[in-house]
Design brief:
With 461 residues, this protein is α+β, with helices and mostly antiparallel strands. The chain has helices spanning 17-28, 56-59, 62-68, 113-122, 132-142, 148-155, 200-205, 242-248, 260-274, 290-300, 323-326, 338-341, 359-368, 406-413, 423-429, 440-443, and strands at residues 3-8, 36-42, 47-53, 72-78, 93-97, 100-110, 161-169, 172-177, 186-190, 193-197, 209-213, 218-223, 226-232, 240-241, 254-255, 258-259, 281-284, 308-310, 334-336, 345-350, 373-378, 417-420, 437-438. The strands form six sheets. Strands 3-2-4-1-10-9-11 form a seven-stranded antiparallel β-sheet. α5 crosses α6 (148-155) and α9 packs across α10 (290-300). The structure holds iron/sulfur cluster (SF4).
């Protein structure tokens, strides 16, 4: 996960405008990471950074935005995949090189970061964090070249895995996607300012117009001359993470020009065709499964209702519940509506089952509020394989579908029936093909060779 954004505004713009826009762009990307947030900004001379643990609204104050100032900025919301959740690993990170400073913010996971770090350490580079992002930054800083353009273009082909990056120097913003385009990144304009962001919802929030997606393997430099491609490392196929469509991206975003909301509705429609149920009501597990439940209801003719209300403020809290409260489980997160559920045969639509630890309590919660039957429908196939490309799902042995078949999972979660969307149905709903998407957590078909089980803390020293 993680959300990233970059802004380059014209020389005559209000000097606080870039950081103010960045603040609201990060708000729009909050769903991609809630552990920490940060902004690096420049006035053309040096870089200033504010980054702290917490949500965007908690991290930045009005004085912070005034101190940051600047006509260009990059920003980050973090969900840790490599490196633990602590302030040293918050982004953007800044490295100093003989040619100046570079700030960097990263969405993805570099699967060869350990090897690259060992090589750099052998050259005498010292690391302050356990994050693969610092490895990328130090690798670029240590490259040969008289300019950041040259160093970036030399360094990036050494990276393996998934990486969308934004970088900032006193004279330019850079925006990059890995050769497969695993993580999204799009380009927009607001007046004379240029923007990049993980998702189009960030452009919408700040009133910017979508220009195009940054292409897989593209390296863009953005400055007063505009957005200029300085290198193209595209692979011979594409590999956008299909889980962006299923769960990660905001339903209000477009991915590859396709509405995420409409894709999820189509997933629900196909799910209704593949796994019909005799039921009285269709409800979603909010929020990500709402459009799929709408699609299921429309195709099946069964009425859509809201049967679970999500507490939007519980999120990823840093205050751990007491053991007593932990037993409450999903009840801390969802309230069930007895009026909707009482004596009903209920189809409940969810986006995915990872460990299976949430589905069973949801089924219990529905039965506890009067549901007579619970038919669980999942708008993605069983997740049987670990993700190495930036989604912190679970280790393979923790994935329930890696060791149980569908009937055994149904018994485990206590549903009356269980149906998963087929791989073909999921891919068709995106409007793409398996040749354009990463589907590795469902199929085990990794697009980049994965040789070792990378633990999240693999770079901890
Ligand atoms: S393995 Fe799954 S979650 Fe990871 S990038 Fe591929 S499709 Fe996305």
């Amino acid at each position: 996960m993680c959300g990233i954004s970059g802004i380059w505004s014209p020389a005559d713009a209000d000097p606080t405008e870039a950081t103010r826009l960045m603040f609201f762009a990060l708000y729009a990307l909050q769903h991609r990471g809630q552990e920490s947030a940060g902004i690096a900004a420049t006035d053309g001379r040096d870089l200033r950074v504010v980054r702290r643990m917490g949500l965007v609204g908690q991290v930045f104050s009005e004085p912070d935005l005034a101190v940051l100032g600047g006509r260009a900025a990059i920003g980050h919301t973090r969900y840790s995949t490599t490196g633990s959740s602590r302030i040293q690993n918050a982004q953007p990170m800044v490295v100093n090189a003989d040619i100046g400073e570079l700030a960097i913010a990263h969405n993805g996971n570099c699967i060869n970061a350990r090897d690259l770090r060992d090589e750099l350490a052998a050259q005498g580079v010292r690391f302050a964090t356990s994050s693969d992002t610092e490895v990328v930054a130090q690798m670029i800083a240590a490259e040969d070249g008289a300019t950041w353009d040259e160093r970036i273009v030399r360094a990036l082909p050494k990276l393996r895995g998934a990486w969308s990056l934004v970088m900032l120097t006193p004279t330019a913003v850079y925006a990059v996607r890995d050769p497969l385009g695993v993580r999204p990144l799009c380009l927009g304009r607001k007046g004379d300012a240029w923007l990049v962001a993980s998702e189009t919802c960030a452009l919408d929030t700040i009133g910017a117009a979508f220009v195009r997606d940054v292409a897989p393997g593209e390296v863009l430099r953005i400055d007063d001359r505009g957005a200029t491609g300085i290198a193209d490392f595209a692979a011979d196929r594409r590999g956008l993470c299909v889980f962006e469509h299923v769960y990660l991206a905001s339903a209000s975003s477009d991915l590859g020009g396709v509405s995420v909301y409409a894709t999820r509705e189509r997933m629900g429609e196909t799910l209704a065709e593949e796994h019909p149920a005799a039921a009285d009501v269709v409800i979603p597990v909010p929020d990500s499964a709402i459009p799929a439940a709408v699609g299921y209801a429309r195709r099946s003719g069964i009425p859509f209702r809201e049967g679970l209300i999500k507490n939007r403020y519980i999120g990823r809290t840093f205050i751990q519940p007491s053991p007593e409260l932990r037993k409450q489980g999903v009840a801390l997160k969802y309230n069930a509506l007895r009026d909707v559920l009482q004596d009903k045969r209920v189809v409940v639509v969810d986006d995915s089952i990872v460990r299976g630890s949430t589905s069973a309590p949801i089924v219990d919660l529905l039965r506890g509020h009067g549901a007579r039957e619970v038919h669980l429908r999942i708008c993605s196939p069983p997740i049987r394989h670990q993700c190495f490309f930036g989604v912190d799902m679970a280790r393979r042995d923790e994935l329930i579908a890696s060791h149980l078949d569908v009937e055994a999972i149904r018994r485990h979660v206590g549903a009356d029936s269980l149906g998963y969307l087929s791989l073909d149905g999921m891919v068709r709903a995106t409007g793409g093909t398996t040749g354009e998407l990463c589907t590795a957590c469902f199929t085990g078909d990794y697009l980049v060779p994965v040789q070792l089980e990378l633990a999240k803390e693999a770079l901890e020293t």
